[in-house]
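Before the break, one more example. Copy the sequence into your notebook; we will annotate it together after we see the structure.
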Amino acid sequence: MAYEVEPPKYVRLAQTIQRRIEDGTYPPGTRVPSENQLVQAFGMSRPTVVRALELLKRDGWLESRQGFGTIVRGRPEVVERQDRRGREALERDESQAPGRLIEVGEVPVPARIASALGLPRRVKVLVRRFLVEEGGEAVELVSSYFPAGLVEGTELDSREVLRGSVREYLEARKKIRFDHVTERVSARLPEPEDAELLGLPDGVPVLSVLVIARDASGQALQVSDVLLPADRQELEDTYRLN
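Here is what the structure looks like once it is written out:
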């Protein structure tokens, strides 16, 4: 049986502020209300307000400017990247992709995934793990996490590979729409099991691309942790200077 879990207060507040940015209540380039004003307006504690603002800053909706306070940036820009790991993770067809499905099941939500999904810790979520292989070599390990409410009534928990992408599958069956993606890139040492799957020697780090797919309201629908062997990657990006 799946249970709906209400997101923490700071996540709900962040979602409310985000909707106000999108509908023009808080236009880009303007200051958001002060912490005191938000505390009074929403009846929430200052720590809750601070966490909500930090979440919005981290995801690119707000920024702090010295002497001006917290400024609205608007919807985070979609950056065209050569790798496009986020799009690949969402649109990969498991039945056609080179590689294999190695795990499907409920797991306690990892801390960084809980934060991205807006869920309390220790809640169980569904994970699908797919090992991408090229020429017989493991090149990418993708762990995709889904909240229980999104899994109910679908075949996401099936141990059979899905035909078509997860994005297409969910949009067709759950009547939702993926709107935008946030990517967070970091480097770390892999867990022993991950290192073994990727064929990494001891001490070789991985690049972790945390792909957070959201609907237009900002609600996270899926989080994928894409692990790439750091010794086999060359990332490149081109951007304009304003």
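The chain has eight helices and eight strands. Residues 43 and 224 are 34 Å apart (CA to CA). Try to locate both features in your own notes.
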